[in-house]
Amino acid sequence: MVGIGIGPFNLALAALAEPVDGLRSLFLEARPCFSWHPGLLMEGTTLQVPFLADLVTMVDPTSRWSFLNYLRVHGRMFPFFFAERFHVPRREYDHYCRWVAESLPSCRFGARVTGLGWDDAAQAFTVEYADAATGARQRVLARNVVLGVGTEPVVPEPLAGLVGEHVFHSAAYLDRRASLAGARDVTVVGFGQSGAEVFLDLLRAQEAEGWRLRWLARTPAFAPMEYSKLGLEHFTPDYIRYFRGLPEDVRERLIPRQWQLYKGISEQTIADIYDLLYERSVGGARPDVTLMPNVAVTGARRAGDRYELDCRHVEQGRDFTVVTDRVVLATGYAPRRPAFLEPLAPLVDWDAKGRYRVDGQYRVALDPRVTGGLYVQNAEMHTHGVGAPDLTLGAWRAATILNAIAGREIQPVPSAVAFTTFGVPEAAPAPEKTAAAEPIPAAPR
Fold first, then answer.
1. Fewer CB within 10 Å, N or C, the chain?
2. Would you give the distance in Å from CA 63 to the centre of its chain?
């Protein structure tokens, strides 16, 4: 098995695969070391999922790669216990993942994959990569390949031509924050946790920096993430199975309507923003900020050393213009089709929108002559629902892929955990003989 990309999802697979006898694994990453959203590791930010949603615990709490064992190894068990934190600092999660990645011999950094193809004679995938340390180009064969290349920042088309020193994506926020110095007016465009955290950081610095702040979001409200106990059951194998059974056109309509499941803001971040605004309004003062939902940016251009944003209020249907000095784009991320996939692209059964067709074991549909398995992680929201990018299901998905590759149940994965019945009840099924979510196909031979 070769994994391409080492983010949390492929790292979870590497950790679960490490003790498996008879399975040779190699995970390749172009970056020199593990790094998880480095531009957003602001002090005080936390994960939006509990620490139990680490790389392994949701399927194997006995694994030595669990977050609790990380605390033990680093002498932090007592401080963690006394802190009583269910949601850990984002910086600590990044450090935990780096510890796992540096400890696993299967993980190789500074290895940029340049080509992925299929060798009919060898009946294997060919993975070509360049070693950053030596400059040497290497080639390995793999029966199975798992794509975990992650997503890339999305820049809206009206703003694409302006990206530079003073207009940048929130993914680079910490690296580019110094370029905001001297601005009289700063605008955050976009919603979600990233947008809220950037706005809060700017708000905290407002009195010292003296800038006017503006937050424009296309969503109908600055609303919290759906975090009710029954609402969270959308991040279960049960909901994935239900969602996969829906017609494609229904799935396409459903995902945008579920924005609060994956684009909402933590209640704590909303509270922090509101409390700061409230404190600054004591005595009748009005904070120099504008928070506007229901706003789409339809055009943008330079205006001397400033920027003009053409905006439209979605519900009112009214247009207006914003003039600002700096723009931070918290406009999200999207799956990308990596260049190294081009040699294999003619053998992939793309859907009408050029996306992967993905089955219940996260295997991509390929030309029948390809007998190996190509799997994806976090590139299947269109087929598996809103849980695709969520860390909650990371270990479960990795275990599902591992079982499919092995052709046997390496890690038991639950098939029914939700109290919610998502679809029309069917006749009571016969008792299951296995805990697997779906029958596990034999590994290709």
1. C
2. 23
> Two tokens at 96?
């935990």
Is residue 136 helix, strand or coil?
A: coil
The CA distance from 401 to 9, in Å, is 11
Helices 8-17 and 90-103 cross at an angle (nearest 10°) of 40
Rounded Cα distance between 32 and 349, Å, is: 33
- Tokens 């919290």 — which residue? 224
Helix-then-strand count for the chain, H and E: 12, 18
User: Does the CA dihedral 10-15-18-19 come out positive or negative?
Assistant: negative
DSSP one-letter string for 282-332: GGG---SEEEE-SEEEEEEEEETTEEEEEEEETTTTEEEEEEESEEEE---
Closest CA to 152 of 331, 326, 383: 331
Contacts of 257 (CB under 8 A, 6+ apart): none
* Residues 47, 51, 56, 57, CA torsion sign: negative
With a cut of 60, say whether residue 326 has pLDDT above it: yes
pLDDT of residue 428: 53
* Residues 399, 411 contacting (CB under 8 angstroms): yes
Beta-carbon contacts of residue 163 (< 8 Å; ≥ 6 apart): 155, 169, 329
Give the DSSP H/E element, type plus range, for residue 189. Answer: strand 185-189
pLDDT category of residue 425 using cuts at 50, 70 and 90: confident
Which residue is listed with tokens 């390809």?
Answer: 370
**CB count in 10 Å sphere of residue 162:** 17
Q: Could you give the CA distance from residue 276 to residue 258 in angstroms, rounded to a whole number?
A: 29
| β 185-189/124-131 pair status | unpaired
Contact 142, 125 (CB under 8 A): yes
Given pLDDT bands bounded at 50, 70 and 90, which one contains residue 100?
very high
Q: Which of 42-46, 74-78, 108-112, 195-199 has the lowest mean pLDDT?
A: 42-46
State whether residue 191 is helix, strand or coil.
coil
Per-residue pLDDT at 230:
96
Tokens in use for 398? 């990795």
